[in-house]
Specification:
It is a single chain. The protein is built from 8 helices and no strands. The relative contact order is 0.16. By secondary structure, it is mostly helical. The longest helix is centred in the middle third of the chain and has 31 residues. It has one domain. Helix 1 packs antiparallel against helix 8 and helix 5 runs antiparallel to helix 6. It is elongated and about 55 Å long.
C-alpha cells in the first residue's frame, strides 16, 4: 500500500508539472491555477513516501522535509483556491484586486513565492534524508537537494519590492512565465525519478 500510494503521488507530481508548463505556455490561467492545487497534494504524498523510507539516523531531516511540504501545500491551496473562486467569480474592487489577484504581484503572489520557498526547503531536507543506493536514486537526491537553492530567491525577492506593481501583460509578467516554465523543466525529472524509485522499491 505504501509503495502504491507513493507512486500515485509521484505520478500526480509528474503529470501536473507537465500540464502546468503547457497551460503557462498557452496562457490558460484558470487551468494553470487549478493544476497547481493538485501538484501540492501530489507533492505531499511524494514527500511522505520518501519520509517513510528514511532510516532512524536521518529521520529528523525527513520529518522536517515532510513538515515543510505541508506548509507549502497549505499556502499554495489558499493562493490558488482564491484565484479560482473569489478572484475569478466576484467583482473585486481595485484595492481588493491588488491584494488578491495573483497577476498583480500583491499579497497572495508573495504568499505563493513563500509557498514554493517552503517546497524548496522540503526538497532539500527530503533529499538530505535519502540514502541513494542506485544511480537513479543518486540523481533524485541531487535534484531534490539542488532544488533547495530556490528557497533563498523565493523568500528574499518579495522583500525587495521587485514585484510591486507587476501586471500579467508587462515584461515582468512575461519574464515570470518564462521562469516558471524553466522551473517546470527542472522539477519534472523529480516527479519522474520518484515514480521510478517507488516502482522498484518494496516498501513496508
Amino acid at each position: 500500500m505504501n509503495r502504491i500510494v507513493s507512486k500515485i503521488g509521484a505520478a500526480v507530481v509528474s503529470a501536473t508539472v507537465f500540464l502546468f508548463a503547457v497551460f503557462l505556455i498557452f496562457d490558460m490561467l484558470f487551468w494553470s491555477y487549478l493544476v497547481c492545487m493538485f501538484l501540492a497534494i501530489g507533492y505531499v504524498i511524494l514527500a511522505a513516501g520518501l519520509q517513510h523510507e528514511s532510516t532512524e539516523d536521518r529521520r529528523v531531516a525527513a520529518n522536517a522535509g515532510l513538515a515543510f511540504a505541508a506548509v507549502y501545500a497549505v499556502l499554495i491551496l489558499i493562493v490558488y483556491f482564491a484565484q479560482t473562486t473569489s478572484v475569478r467569480l466576484e467583482g473585486l474592487s481595485e484595492q481588493a484586486a491588488k491584494i488578491l489577484d495573483y497577476r498583480n504581484g500583491g499579497l497572495l503572489f508573495n504568499y505563493d513565492l513563500l509557498g514554493y520557498g517552503m517546497m524548496a526547503l522540503s526538497t532539500f531536507f527530503i533529499g538530505l534524508s535519502m540514502k541513494a543506493a542506485t544511480k537513479l536514486d543518486k540523481w533524485l537526491k541531487i535534484f531534490l537537494m539542488v532544488h533547495g537553492v530556490f528557497f533563498l530567491s523565493c523568500f528574499i525577492m518579495p522583500m525587495t519590492g521587485v514585484f510591486t506593481g507587476m501586471s500579467a501583460g508587462g515584461s515582468a509578467g512575461k519574464g515570470g512565465t518564462i521562469a516558471l516554465v524553466i522551473w517546470c523543466a527542472y522539477f519534472l525529472p523529480i516527479g519522474v525519478l520518484a515514480f521510478l524509485h517507488f516502482g522498484k522499491k518494496k516498501n513496508a
